[in-house]
């Protein structure tokens, strides 16, 4: 049984949540996001909270109960505060800079890598070796960060590559004579 699903989703001031059948829409200062829930859960809004409960006691309904609550929580948090992922670049000559609607990455290839920045996402580079990805949609922010990291994932011997700022790289010892 879901313990996450039992808790209601608090709606902060400045955020408006509307239910239209299975469609949940959250509107706040950072934009508008929507999510189509399954028919296995019932949702209601009262007292500034979104309450979610399963329609029946099937295993599928109980599994989607907590998932639906987490998705709605991410919508509300996204339109009110937003989400951020930070990447760090390690390596001699490795750097990044924002050029218009693209991120220019120099990662040791014979060419520069131009990664397009999708709508609703803000990418900033305070230093040439740090990238900050911000947006309202948690899934899109994580996807963009994963795509940038995939160009040159960190390698275990010298640690060169693109990594998340909170990621720990398990280092290996090199060859011995």
TrEMBL record:
Name of one Pfam family that matches: Ribosomal_L6
InterPro entries: Ribosomal_uL6-like, Ribosomal_uL6-like_a/b-dom_sf, Ribosomal_uL6_a/b-dom, Ribosomal_uL6_bac-type, Ribosomal_uL6_CS
Regions crossing the membrane: none
Claim: Ribonucleoprotein is one of the keywords in the record: yes
Keywords for the protein's UniProt record, in alphabetical order: Ribonucleoprotein, Ribosomal protein, RNA-binding, rRNA-binding
Domain of life of the native organism: Bacteria
Gene Ontology BP annotations: cytoplasmic translation
Gene Ontology cellular component list: cytosolic large ribosomal subunit
Gene Ontology MF terms: rRNA binding; structural constituent of ribosome
UniProt domain Large ribosomal subunit protein uL6 alpha-beta: residue ranges: 11-82, 91-164
Function statement: This protein binds to the 23S rRNA, and is important in its secondary structure. It is located near the subunit interface in the base of the L7/L12 stalk, and near the tRNA binding site of the peptidyltransferase center.
Subunit (UniProt): Part of the 50S ribosomal subunit.
Family label: Belongs to the universal ribosomal protein uL6 family.
Record's protein name: Large ribosomal subunit protein uL6
Organism from which the protein derives: Limibacillus halophilus
